[in-house]
Design a protein that fits this description.
alpha+beta, 2 domains, Transposase Inhibitor Protein From Tn5, Chain A, domain 1, ten-stranded mixed sheet, single chain, 418 residues
Length: 418
């Protein structure tokens, strides 16, 4: 027994997230449409859950009589890969942003996104994700760069590559991470500019649901800390080692011995200080926690030797000994969330490069990741002998049972007697 089925997963999505009803509430920009919007969006959503690699393959579902039967689509209602793609252009980015927030709060209420993770704090982190690289398909909002390629004879040439980037604020507390919101980086714009715009949009809504915002060295700057603290939240950033505070901590390290934390075989040397360097802007001091790993870590872990973090958190909320763990948790996001979303839920061929279409694909891709992880946990929660490998479970349920799920749609249903 594979512990779960596509039919049960479909029912789980409807019961917990009311996905179909929410799709029907989205405004349709078309006039006199043939194929209903909600059914097209369901097709996109479940194509991404199935991890189909191309927008065309997802659109081809609309021509599959089994899938049409499951959705209740009639032959005269049409539908094609091209029309399925064009529909995404007419949905506003604001609606996709709102749907992602609703997914987050629904998952929190259902206990899917829990607080059981980092340091007893509700944490979210910022990171950049690159999307839809192409040498030919592009839109006016694409970013562009040059790269060198080789042909079959080894001759090198320079071509232009088009791509998009988006910044995500991701929930990283508990077992399942989830991108709460995305902000697409405009051509010529930097990651930090888009990230601050994302925070200004989300933090007023999330201030009662999140305690701590994490960022890498790019975010070790006054605008990031001010945006977060103005929302009443705490911030942590990996040190850029290029600020006035870094000069202070270097002087401290030369004049004061470290405090050793951790047990035998996991010792970390810690220096800690407070700085008033940015107090005029932030109206508070910042703490700098500098950590040197004194134990030998396996090479396969790629664990850094030195880490320095800057934070607004007071000692009672973030003891200095936890600074090493907080800083290292920054890589949980990249390894556990974005790498998986990029490798498992990416579209190798995406022919819709409009900003609104990309916002929709990001929102539905995030939900596909959340639903799959949540249903996997739900399906095996009370099962004895369930496979411990998520990859095998995914193959048995979402790949193999998907075909049986579609085939059942065309089987005649027994009529009640009498």
């Amino acid at each position: 027994m594979a512990y779960g089925s596509m039919k049960a997963m479909f029912q789980y999505a409807e019961k917990v997230f009311s996905r179909s009803a929410r799709f029907r509430q989205i405004a349709d920009a078309r006039s006199n449409p043939t194929v209903p919007l909600a059914e097209v969006l369901q097709t996109w959503q479940w194509g991404l859950i199935r991890r189909l690699p191309s927008t065309e393959q997802i659109g081809d579902l609309l021509a599959d009589p089994r899938w049409r039967a499951l959705l209740g689509l009639q032959p005269e209602q049409g539908g094609s890969p091209d029309s399925a793609s064009r529909i995404l252009d007419g949905i506003s980015i604001q609606e996709w942003n709102q749907m992602l927030l609703e997914d987050f709060f629904t998952a929190r209420r259902a206990g899917i996104l829990s607080d059981s993770g980092q340091f007893g704090l509700r944490c979210a982190a910022l990171d950049l994700n690159e999307l839809f690289k192409s040498e030919s398909i592009h839109c006016p909002h694409c970013q562009v760069r040059e790269k060198t390629v080789s042909d079959s004879e080894g001759n090198k040439r320079t071509v232009q590559e088009y791509y998009h980037q988006a910044v995500a604020l991701t929930w990283i507390s508990g077992e399942i991470p989830f991108p709460i919101g995305w902000e697409i980086v405009a051509p010529g714009e930097g990651e930090l500019t888009a990230a601050l715009r994302l925070l200004e949009r989300l933090l007023p809504v999330l201030r009662r649901s999140v305690d701590l915002i994490l960022g890498d060295a790019l975010y070790c700057c006054r605008p990031f800390f001010k945006t977060v603290t103005d929302a009443g939240l705490n911030a942590v950033a990996i040190s850029s080692q290029q600020t006035e505070m870094d000069q202070e901590i270097e002087l401290l390290k030369q004049s004061s011995p470290p405090r050793i934390t951790g047990g035998r075989g996991s010792e970390v040397a810690v220096w800690e200080m407070e700085s008033e360097a940015w107090k005029s802007d932030l109206h508070r001091k910042l703490r700098i926690i500098d950590c040197d790993r004194r134990y030998e870590a396996p090479k396969w872990k790629h664990e850094r030797r030195h880490l320095r973090v800057v934070t607004t958190m007071p000692l009672e909320l973030l003891p200095a000994g936890q600074g090493w763990k907080v800083g290292r948790s920054r890589w949980i996001i990249e390894n556990g969330t974005f790498n998986r979303m990029t490798s498992d839920y990416a579209l190798e061929h995406n022919y819709r490069h409009s900003v609104s279409a990309i916002a929709g694909l990001l929102a539905m891709r995030s939900f596909a990741f959340l639903l799959t992880m949540a249903y996997h946990r739900h399906a095996i929660a009370r099962s004895k002998g369930a496979t411990g490998r998520f990859i095998k479970w995914f193959h048995d349920i979402v790949v193999e049972d998907w075909v049986r799920f579609l085939d059942m749609a065309l089987k005649p249903r027994p009529q009640p007697s009498g």
